[in-house]
Specification:
The complex is a heterodimer of chains A (119) and B (116).
Chain A lengths: L2 E3 L4 E5 L4 E3 L2 E3 L5 E8 L6 E7 L7 E2 L2 E6 L4 E6 L8 E9 L11 E2 L3 E6 L1
Parallel strand pairs in A: 2-12
Antiparallel strand pairs in A: 1-4, 3-9, 5-6, 5-10, 7-8, 8-9, 10-11, 10-12
Chain B lengths: L4 E3 L2 E4 L5 E6 L6 E7 L5 E8 L2 E4 L8 E4 L6 E5 L8 E8 L10 E2 L3 E5 L1
Parallel strand pairs in B: 2-11
Antiparallel strand pairs in B: 1-3, 3-8, 4-5, 4-9, 5-6, 7-8, 9-10, 9-11
The chains are: A mainly beta (119), B mainly beta (116).
Chain lengths: 119, 116
């Protein structure tokens, strides 16, 4: 069974510092995808970044990068130069069977990390 | 392009009553998903539609929950009769049928359901 673990319920970080949000996962599948979503206080879930299990390079999207360590089954999100607007809940999620032409199954989520950026 | 919309944003009902949640996916998205987050727990997958067909409903808690997607456009999720443990935030998400590498799901703002 799939499982996502986020061990940091909350984090306080000074503005402009880099932030690493931890995520470990458990799956018996070889073909899977890892996602990070941001949920600000307004409630909507915003897709940030994706990493496929067969991708050799770590994914990057602007200030977001994903530190993918396949052997350790970890997919940590790194936010560089944090900003006040980064304060939000962050969810790590996984979906199996990404490469069979489907990749449209439901996501498995972690409990989330509440990140607060302090000025 | 309009995002995923959900109605209502909040609903407060009494145990035993019926509630119907609605989700309008992004136009052209054939995949539609329902998720639920109970306070303090993970966001849990409930079910997945491809157009009007239920592809996977393995996450539906019990037969008090009924989801429909007539015509393959908007979807409704009905809870009848509601119980206290049904309280939580219900999210809807949509994606293209074959949407590229990530085929990310786009989420709505959620409906917060409180059962008293």
């Amino acid at each position: 069974a799939q499982k996502i673990t986020q061990t940091q319920p909350g984090m306080f970080v000074q503005e402009k510092e880099a932030v690493t949000l931890d995520c470990t996962y458990d799956t018996s599948d070889q073909s899977y995808g890892l996602f990070w979503y941001k949920q600000p206080s307004s409630g909507e879930m915003i897709f940030l970044i994706y990493q496929g299990s067969y991708d050799e390079q770590n994914a990057t999207e602007g200030r977001y990068s994903l530190n993918f360590q396949k052997a350790r089954k970890s997919a940590n999100l790194v936010i560089s130069a944090s900003q006040l607007g980064d304060s939000a809940m962050y969810f790590c999620a996984m979906r199996e069977d990404m490469y069979s032409g489907g990749g449209a199954d439901g996501l498995t989520f972690g409990k989330g990390t509440h990140l607060i950026i302090q000025p | 392009e309009a995002g995923v919309t959900q109605f209502p944003s909040h609903s407060v009902i009494e145990k035993g009553q019926t509630v119907t949640l609605r989700c309008d996916p992004i136009s052209g998205h054939d995949n539609l998903y329902w998720y639920r987050r109970v306070m303090g727990k993970e966001i849990k997958f409930l079910l997945h539609f491809v157009k009007e067909s239920k592809q996977d409903e393995s996450g539906m808690p019990n037969n008090r929950f009924l989801a429909e997607r007539t015509g393959g456009t908007y979807s409704t999720l009905k809870v009848q009769p509601a119980e206290l443990e049904d309280s939580g935030v219900y999210f809807c998400a949509s994606s293209h049928l074959m949407g590229g590498k990530a085929n990310e799901q786009f989420f709505g703002p959620g409906t917060r359901l409180t059962v008293l």
